[in-house]
Records
---
Amino acid sequence: MARIAITGGTGFVGIHTSRALAAAGHDLRLLARGTRSGPRPAGAEWVRADVVGGEGLIEALRGCDAVVHLVAIIREKGRQTFTRVNAEGTANVVRAATEAGVGHVVHISAIGVDPDPRYAYLASKWEGEQAVRGGAVPFTVLRPSLVFGPGDGFFTVLAKLIRLNPVVPVVGDGRALFQPIAVSDLARIIALSIERGPSGAVHEVGGPDHLTYEQIIDIIKAETGRRRRNVHVPVGAMRPLAALFEKVLPNPPVTPGQLRLLEKENVTRVDAVATQFGFDPLPLEGNAAYLQDY
Ligand SMILES: NC(=O)c1ccc[n+]([C@@H]2O[C@H](COP(=O)([O-])OP(=O)(O)OC[C@H]3O[C@@H](n4cnc5c(N)ncnc54)[C@H](OP(=O)(O)O)[C@@H]3O)[C@@H](O)[C@H]2O)c1
């Protein structure tokens, strides 16, 4: 049993990870700013902390054997910018972990991280990853593909889009590839990483299937029992709309930056989890009934 801090422990991956780590018998300390209320495992301690300023992080991490670093944003909002949260925030966590004498940072990166500034989210995640790999704390880096499960921010948005529209807009040719991984499987991989100790390596992880964007839409339609026709919309036509959404909506369904992410393949080997973590991950097909609630 270990004492483990989880930054972003109240988010989508954080909730599932804290459940898995609590079930494995660990003592947990969840760190976040406190903008969300939600279920937290019994006995998990909760500490208010902002990784951007970094104040209070050293105290929050003191006495912890490991920290699972999950804080990141996929969409910028006000002072929560990619650079501040994903890059500098991660560097702040690594520095604080060093000062606090934490023995292992498990960092959740993302498949496709890339220093190319045209992909602002991926570039900031790349910078954050570099802070972990170049830092003084022994580490494990996990790079998941898209994560699905109750509370996710991608598949539930598509399910809503399908429910609310008579036809389903498919951006571009719909052939961008993804490898959805179940959040329960990612949580299991994080728990295994804690158990094994620092690997000092980067592990790409994804589910058992390479799926195109359009195949994902068809699976969601099947799992939620909705008959809809797909209509292809050129990326160029979506861009001004996405720019407008970003300007006027508090939670836009798509932003120009997210459209750009569709240019990048989001896959690794289909046996990545089996070979590195010794179990077969769940496919999206047959495991997406939760989307009926959205
Ligand atoms: N979901 C996916 O499909 C996916 C795919 C690949 C990689 N990832 C990576 O997985 C990690 C977790 O993603 P997620 O989907 O669980 O995100 P999420 O649901 O948006 O959760 C983000 C968490 O970070 C906290 N947070 C945000 N800004 C903060 C700040 N400045 N200081 C402290 N805490 C802050 C949030 O709580 P407060 O708002 O209360 O602070 C929340 O607990 C991220 O690193 C992401 O890049 C996710």
---
Amino acid sequence: MFNKIAIFVSFFLCFAATGACAQGLRALARIDAAQSGIADISDHEMELTLKLSQAVPYRIFTLSDPDRIVFDFKEVDWAGFSAIKPLKSEKINELRFGVFQAGWSRMVMELNEPMVLDEVGLRIDPVKGDAVLKAKFKRASPREFAAQTGPRMEAGWDLPAEINVVAPKQRQLGDRPLIVVLDPGHGGIDSGARQGDKLEKDLVLIFAKELKETLILTGRYEAYLTRNDDDFISLPGRISRARMLGADLFISLHADALKSGWATGTTVYSLSDEASNEASAYLAARQDRDDLLAGVDLTRQSDAVATVLMEMARVETKSRSDLLADMVVSGVAQSIGRLRKRPHLYAGFSVLKAPDIPSILIELGFMSNKRDLNNLLTIGWRQKVIEGIVLALDTWSVEDAAQAQLLRQ
Ligand SMILES: [Zn+2]
């Protein structure tokens, strides 16, 4: 997994909402020596724990003659750590610290025996904004060690490449048209729900196209679809498209079928960690399984690192999504008269998991219900719902921009 070199780049997300707003990367990350250290966790494993005042870019690699593990960190102040040398490992002969180049500091562990990186991860506290880096090393044969040794030597390696970084989307401030990405559910080999000859994937595509046109006509929005045709797109693929399009908000559109006795009518979902009721859990499992229908599990996103680092953005995005869901509920209720009893639900839909883009999923109705299906097939009903959604977006964008302005002060 880690051949030659492991580069992990993180970045700090400024979070006024949670009071964890530091001065970004300009400030040195401090090490909390009391909660940091290096220790043997078995006779063949050793672990480094670093408690940092903020997340920073870093990379880890090994060098031989003598065998060494090298850590490069951006903007880390080693003072606390080096002073007490919290070293409880038999595997380390010597620990050295120094500036590697402007803005980058280096820690070198000189080893008593060859060890290679086994696991590494940086966890950011979403509230306080501090971070814990854990890197586990395991004993290796001299040959294994030699095979993994050495930093990348190609030209320009001197500044660690900023891989795996997706810059979080800047919050809208009400000074430009909002970019709305509409996501018609299902598509291609995945038809979604079916009732007679009517397929969910077709109904939601029609609705999405109509909504898109209406949004563009207002002059207040740019609108795009994740799919314009009957194509299969994975759930992560839908989020990636939204991000590529620069989405300010993301709306997934569905019209699923549920067992009889379950709800009818329009329902708006925003993300929860755990699905809030049986129907949400059932639907979440259904949506998530869509990715498996192509025969390949596409849900594993490769840049897990970037995903972890977006954790902080999630907190703020969640409340923005919840507000959006509430406003869509009241907008649609105004335009079509009434909604079901609990029109805003929380579910663990993967497609809502973009950490930096407010996202909701609208179940326009349930194809399994005759009246809902009939509504979906009626342009007059669709236009009313669309009016309600546009009204909701108008209200939300003003409120959301006002909150963003407040957070900036
Ligand atoms: Zn669906």
